Amino acid sequence: MKALRRTARWAAGLVVALLALLAIEALTAIATVPEDGYRAPSQAPREFGSDGARLRLVVLGDSTGSGRGAPYERGIAVASRGTSRNAGA
Q: Which residue, 7, 47, 59, 60, could crosslink 66 as a Cys pair with Cβ 3.0–4.6 Å?
């Protein structure tokens, strides 16, 4: 019976900790929303570099990968520029 109580306390503590973490994340998200709200990034292609073979990067999947909810400059498309120097080699 002692082990069952200990497990129940541990589980309750875990639930409380997860709820606290969720509350902190929600408050952080609310505090970091820009004053003018969210604006979708331009869908116009952006070019980086001036030489080498052209490479088309398509970001699929999680919306945060393409910069949704974050400035475009912090998305994968911009962050990965310059990492494909030897892609065609």
A: 59
